[in-house]
Design goal:
The complex is a heterodimer of chains A (227) and B (101). By secondary structure, chain A is mainly alpha-helical. Chain A contains 8 helices and 1 strand. Chain B has a domain of 62 residues: Arc Repressor Mutant, subunit A. The two termini of chain B are 19 Å apart. Classes of the chains: A mainly alpha (227), B alpha+beta (101).
Chain lengths: 227, 101
């Protein structure tokens, strides 16, 4: 497909179609649910870690993989089902074209930029570790919440910018603030991650719920209209 | 047909109508869309949209598939390859005309 300028009617239609995915808040609701699930999972692990640290290490290595795979599958199924039942009967159905492959320069920027960003961030945090917590704490576990917080913050910023939905900037800000607070308080490890995921889940569910409420009030299901 | 870039005589009259142009611009941006989405996006009445879709289908610019989702009838519209080519040509001609006037 050709690339068009932002003023182009096709570009406008494409942008509106992208924004249409986020009109009803189901995306945030499902994401929020997945985040809350992961928060519960990490909280459980942090409780196990207190009683038996050896069990926790074994569980920790598998949990993120299972949570990620299961979360993606669950999210995809849930979003599709919610849209089938809520969005499409109210405001119509669209199928998106297959995404264009990324440009070589973009691919390189992602593959090189992301690891470089991670290394710089972790190095900076490591070099300044004395300012934030005492020497007897495990700095790797302390760095996990800010790392995830910044990563999520960046992702929400990119999504917000791509689809022109300002409420995602708020989600990005919450992610950044919560992770910064956890870092400054020295809350790390599975407890810190559980708190970060929990806060993100609550914010996403609240934002998604409000959006869905507004959407349903503004778009009642039309009766007798051909679809 | 005229090749004069200052002339609009060469443009496809079927696409040049604002509502049909709008429908094609929407369909060009996606794989397919149903009647309800097109109606909301274009702001046309059911009857008007139906007429425009029929004209575009008759010209071979779009495909209309009527199916059922449960007991509810669903009308899916998809732009054909010929439709994409015609719409691209129309846009090029219009752009050329605007640049030369």
């Amino acid at each position: 497909m050709k690339k068009h300028s932002p003023k182009d009617p096709v570009s406008r239609a494409r942008r509106r179609a992208l924004r249409y995915q986020h009109l009803d808040g189901t995306f945030e609701l499902t994401f929020g649910g997945a985040f809350l699930l992961m928060a519960v999972c990490f909280y459980g692990l942090s409780r196990v870690a207190i009683s038996d640290p050896s069990v926790s290490t074994g569980l920790l290595s598998f949990t993120p993989l299972v949570a990620l795979g299961g979360g993606i599958y669950l999210m995809d199924t849930l979003v599709r089902q919610l849209r089938m039942r809520i969005t499409y009967p109210c405001t119509g159905y669209i199928a998106y074209p297959k995404p264009r492959p990324l440009k070589r320069s973009t691919r390189l920027a992602i593959w090189i930029g992301l690891p470089v960003f991670t290394v710089i961030l972790l190095a900076l945090l490591f070099l300044n570790r004395a300012k934030f917590y005492t020497a007897d704490q495990d700095y790797v576990s302390i760095l996990m919440p800010p790392f995830f917080g910044l990563l999520f913050s960046g992702l929400w910023m990119i999504i917000g910018w791509k689809v022109s939905v300002p409420r995602f900037y708020f989600t990005a800000a919450v992610s950044f603030l919560v992770s910064a607070a956890l870092f400054l308080k020295g809350v790390g490890g599975t407890t810190g991650i559980a708190l970060l995921f929990g806060a993100m889940g609550v914010v996403l569910c609240a934002s998604g719920g409000l959006t869905l409420h507004r959407y349903l009030r503004g778009n009642p299901t039309p009766q007798g209209t051909p679809r | 047909m005229s090749d004069d870039p200052r002339s609009l005589r060469g443009v496809d009259r079927l696409i040049h109508e604002p509502s049909r142009c709008n429908i094609l611009a929407i369909l060009a941006a996606m794989e397919n869309a149903n009647f309800l989405y097109l109606q909301r996006e274009t702001g046309l009445t059911k009857g008007n949209l139906s007429v425009h879709l029929s004209k575009l289908e008759a010209a071979g610019y779009i495909d209309i598939e009527k199916t059922y989702r449960g007991k509810i009838p669903v009308t899916l519209c998809r732009m054909t390859l010929a439709g994409r080519e015609a719409f691209d040509t129309y846009r090029k001609k219009l752009k050329q005309f605007l640049e030369n006037t």
